[in-house]
Amino acid sequence: MNLTWVEDGSEHTSRWQAENGAPPPRMVHIVDDSTTADVAYKLATIGEALLWRGDYNNARQLLSAMTRRVPPAKQSPEASSAERFHLHRQYQARRARVLGMLLVELDSGFQLDLGRAPDVRAAASQALGPDAAPCVLSLRELLGMVGAHEWRRTGVFVPALDGSIHPHYGVFSPVRGEYIQLVADAPLPAAERAFDIGTGSGVLAAVLARRGVTSVVATDKDPRSVACARENIDALGYTDRVEVVQTDIFPSGRAGLIVCNPPWIPTKPTSGIEHAVYDPGSRMLKSFLSRLNGHLTPDGEAWLVLSDLAELLGLATRTDLLEAIDTAGLIVVDRADTTPTHSRVSDTKDVLHEARARETTSLWRLRRR
Hints:
The structure is a single chain. By secondary structure, the chain is of the alpha/beta class. The protein is built from 12 helices and 15 strands. The protein has helices at about 35-45, 55-70, 80-100, 120-130, 140-155, 175-185, 205-210, 225-235, 285-290, 310, 320-325, 355, and strands at about 1-5, 10-15, 30, 50, 100-105, 135-140, 155-160, 165, 195, 215-220, 240-245, 255-260, 295-305, 330-340, 360-369. The chain has a 7-stranded mixed sheet, sandwiched between helices. Helix 1 links the parallel strand 3 and strand 4. Helix 1 crosses helix 2 (about 55-70) and helix 4 (about 120-130) packs across helix 5. The N and C termini lie far apart (about 50 Å). The model has no long low-confidence stretch (mean pLDDT about 95).
């Protein structure tokens, strides 16, 4: 899709870039340092975009000022946890729509031609691909690319690997290390072959290889995740043990150990990276469980790594999970629990703080009945 606007009396067109698949805005205003936050916010709320032609640092300040003008969701003390969650998601979506109206333009070399602008060429190239055409995108999305570039450059140290994972743009970063440690500590069954379903950055596949599994097949349907996992596996020195395959859920064949850390919130994602957290109707979880028997060896074991946050928010029940396990012809042989240590647990200003403070992440060990 392309975005068209009028500037200096002439019509201009460029490729429209939106990670969340949003259509290009129909009205575009050319704005600069003279544009006030009140004017910018008013135009953005009615769906009219602002293509920035001023100083880069002033654009960032304008974005911050617009953020402060988005009214928070009105939360009732009597609202249930599920109602508070849905109101919060509505607020996040509304804020994303408004802030996504402040646009910048990248030329053919991913150059950002603004005063005091940083060099974003490497970040944009990694996110969009080196051969991507010039484009217009939201400043907010560009800042996400720059942040992801830094994560990829510095990496996330994972104690269970005694090394770092370098997440790519659009791939979930393994900053919640508690689930990784569960996989590192669980008693390893006698299995020479393992599957890591929905591998993402490849971190769990690498942990399995480090623990001595001689053959690991890591799967993901997202091309960015596949590329990210392959790069991390190669950097960690496990290419002789780990094969990364692009497919939906399972590869062909069977394995004596199958590990899956599915999205844990059964509602709609609003961007690519949110697919690692949000899964409408728990599609991946249900598909994993229902098809597991067809890929698990008779004496094999499956490790389901899952947060109970959805249960605490009233979006799912423990009974539903246990029934899905039973219906799939599986039994629970053990469960290991841990509590998250990320910053949101102690953030009392977080609308979902009450649920996050009680969250438990579990590794369910499953076998065929």
